[in-house]
């Protein structure tokens, strides 16, 4: 009895902490309740997103239907406000580049941006990722949401032949959360520019060293642990050298490759308590840019 009470208390504390974090985030991002409701309506039921991360974080990539039947969504949980803001900037605000278009989702991870593309009524979405096990989750949640116009393939973006095979007929490329996990940034952007796409949506994480610089800059580091499924990939090395280009570098490279910048919007993805202060400060600064040609 005492153990059950303790578990329930811990659960309630977890719920209350989540609620408080969401209110703080909403205040930081200056989003009204109406804004939150409006963005939420433009996205599919959060259970698909929640389930996909539940499976990823628990390293479960098989028997997905059995897991789905046994799993229950967290009632108090909805899309976190940081994620809502991010998806609004990347997807909802760019719906005209997605609706009725053939989409290529680069580094699709567990498939939620592909799912959002389907929800925004794209013609077809192809999601690619080098880690094949994550594609099982991506395919599963899109099927569960009653979509069939999607394809998920294992593709290493460093392999030009494999990449070229999935770029034919593509109209919009979503290149989110990948550029800061590689070292050959220009080569990848050049290869993607050889596609038929006339729109590229790039979400990038800037380093503090390069942020706000008006000159092109890449911050290099060798801390990407390839064992982490959210980091850069290598089958030969546990750690790899990667670089974080700033927006000025991306703008320069894309212009040279024949693209025109349509818009850039900045966002943050986390709050951190400032040392020796009670205030919270935004961290994990990202930017979403849209290029056309």
Overview of the structural elements:
- The protein is an alpha/beta fold.
- About 40% of the residues lie in helices and about 25% in strands.
- It has one domain: Vaccinia Virus protein VP39 (Rossmann fold, 3-Layer(aba) Sandwich).
- It has ten helices and nine strands.
- A seven-stranded mixed β-sheet has the order 3-2-1-4-5-9-8. Strands 6-7 form a two-stranded antiparallel sheet.
- α3 packs antiparallel against α7 (about 130-145).
- It starts with a helix and ends with a strand.
- About 35% of the residues are buried.
Please outline the helices and strands.
Elements: H1 2-29, H2 33-41, H3 46-57, H4 64-70, H5 81-90, E1 102-106, H6 112-119, E2 124-129, H7 132-144, E3 150-154, H8 160-167, E4 172-176, H9 185-193, E5 199-205, E6 218-225, E7 239-245, H10 247-256, E8 260-273, E9 280-292
Parallel strand pairs: 1-2, 1-4, 2-3, 4-5
Antiparallel strand pairs: 5-9, 6-7, 8-9
- Compute the separation of the termini in Å: 65 Å
Helix content: 25-40%
Question: What's the architecture, going by CATH?
Answer: 3-Layer(aba) Sandwich
Number of domains: 1
CATH homology group: Vaccinia Virus protein VP39
- Overall geometric form: globular
- Quaternary organisation: single chain
Q: Report the CATH topology name.
A: Rossmann fold
Number of strands: 9
